[in-house]
Amino acid sequence: QESRKGASLKDATYPDLRAFLAHALKSWRKSTVARKLSSLRTFFKYLQRQGLVEVNPARLAPSPKLDKVLPRFLSVDEAFHLLAQPEGEGHFLAQRDLAILEIFYAGGLRLSELGRAPLHALLQLDVETFDLGVLCGDLGSRWSHAFPEVEVSRY
């Protein structure tokens, strides 16, 4: 296909976009190409609403199939090493750090869940058994209880 360098956005066609994506897949990861395609879809939708282009050539372009990557997790030794890191026994900040690490690890939380969760939504105390529960999962959707091996009296 011949190069259309210098062509205006008004003249962009689906084959132009396909040629761009084919070239992009040679040098970029699929996730990068998918993000660029998403940006192009949104940009052309904006241009269409503004009346600057008649059709959105990116609307029908399929996103590249992304590779599924399993998350990396800590081994038991790495987890114990991490839990031993907070220094200053009895010091408030060390106890806070240890509590955060134990909730994070024992609750099986993702870092994004721990960072976004308000404290009242994260910690639940069962007053009958004095177990500290962790509500984990995507905020606002699926929730499950996980009970870490944490003595509440330590905190």
Q: Given the structure, what is the number of helices?
A: 6
| Counted beta strands | 3
Q: Into which percentage range does the β-strand content fall?
A: 5-15%
Shape verdict: elongated
Low-confidence stretches: 139-148
Mean pLDDT: 75
| Span of the ends, CA to CA | 68 Å
Largest sheet: 3 strands, antiparallel
The gyration radius over C-alpha positions equals 25 Å
Read across the widest sheet, the strand sequence of neighbours is: 1-2-3
String of helices and strands: HHHHHHEEE
The helical percent reads 40-55%
Structural class call reads: mainly alpha
Fill in the keyword field for this structure.
155 residues; elongated; 6 helices; single chain; mainly alpha; 3 strands
